[in-house]
Amino acid sequence: MLVEDICTEDEIWSCTTCGACEEECPLAIEYINKIVDLRRGMVDEGLVPQSLQKPLKALEKR
């Protein structure tokens, strides 16, 4: 699994998706789309940090 083998759950959730990594990457890898996809998969698997569970529940209800 990519999560925990390559980067930790905390690293994935702490990314601010600011794009600085994409600006500096010499290979022009688009990291933001990958981070967002990883987060989607983690949500589907129920791997959501405690601090985000309440806001995500509120979004789900709307």
CA gyration radius, whole angstroms = 13 Å
Indicate the overall shape: elongated
Q: What would the average pLDDT be, to the nearest integer?
A: 87
Return the string of H and E elements. Answer: HHHHH
- E-strand count: 0
Class from helix and strand fractions: mainly alpha
Short characterization:
This protein has 62 residues and is mainly α. It is 66% helix and 0% strand.
Fold blueprint:
Layout: H1 2-5, H2 9-14, H3 20-24, H4 31-44, H5 50-61
Explain how this protein is built.
- This protein has one domain (2-61).
- The protein is elongated.
- It is built from 5 helices and no strands.
- It has helices at 2-5, 9-14, 20-24, 31-44, 50-61.
- It is mainly α and 62 residues long.
Which characteristics define this entry?
single chain, 62 residues, mainly alpha, 66% helix, elongated
